[in-house]
Amino acid sequence: MAATFTDCETAAELAEAGRKVTLVCGRVLGPSLHARVRRPVARRLAKLGVTGLEGPGAGVTEVTGDAVQLGDGRELPSAVTIWTAGCRVPDLAVRSGLR
C-alpha cells in the first residue's frame, strides 16, 4: 500500500459523501507526489475527516470480512474495505524507447 493518487481521490470522494474513511498509506502518503503537493493533499484529506495511517507498520498484511490487519499488529474494524490500485508503465516498455 502506498496511498497513490487514486487512493487519495477515492478517500476524498467517500469522505465528501459523509463516510468515515481510514486511508492506510503504508510507508508514506502519495509517494509519487512531490512533497509540495503531498502536504496540501494530506491537509485536504484531514479537513474532510479522513484518518491517514503512515509509517513502517502501516502496511496491510491481511483483510478479512470485518477487519484489516496491519503489519504492526493493529486491527482496524471495517464494514467495507476498498482496495484501490494505481498503474504505471512497465519497466520494459519504458526502456523500449517507444513513444
The number of domains: 1
Low-confidence regions = none
Proper CATH architecture: 3-Layer(bba) Sandwich
Fourth-tier CATH superfamily name: FAD/NAD(P)-binding domain
Strand order of the largest sheet: 3-4-5
3D shape: globular
Rg from Cα: 15 Å
Which percent band covers the strand fraction? 15-25%
Number of strands: 5
The profile of the biggest β sheet is: 3 strands, antiparallel
CATH topology (level 3) name: FAD/NAD(P)-binding domain
Q: Could you give the distance between the termini?
A: 29 Å
- Structural class comes to alpha+beta
Please bin the fraction of helical residues: 25-40%
* The level-1 CATH class: Alpha Beta
Number of helices: 3
Q: What is the H/E string?
A: HEHEEEEH
Mean of the pLDDT scores? Answer: 89
Topology:
Layout: H1 5-16, E1 22-26, H2 35-47, E2 51-54, E3 60-63, E4 67-70, E5 75-77, H3 91-96
Parallel strand pairs: 1-2
Antiparallel strand pairs: 3-4, 4-5
Walk me through what this model shows.
The strands form two sheets. Strands 3-4-5 form a three-stranded antiparallel β-sheet, with no helix packed on it. Strands 1-2 form a two-stranded parallel sheet. The two termini are 29 Å apart. Helices cover 31% and strands 20% of the residues. It has one domain: FAD/NAD(P)-binding domain (3-Layer(bba) Sandwich), CATH 3.50.50. The chain is α+β, with helices and mostly antiparallel strands.
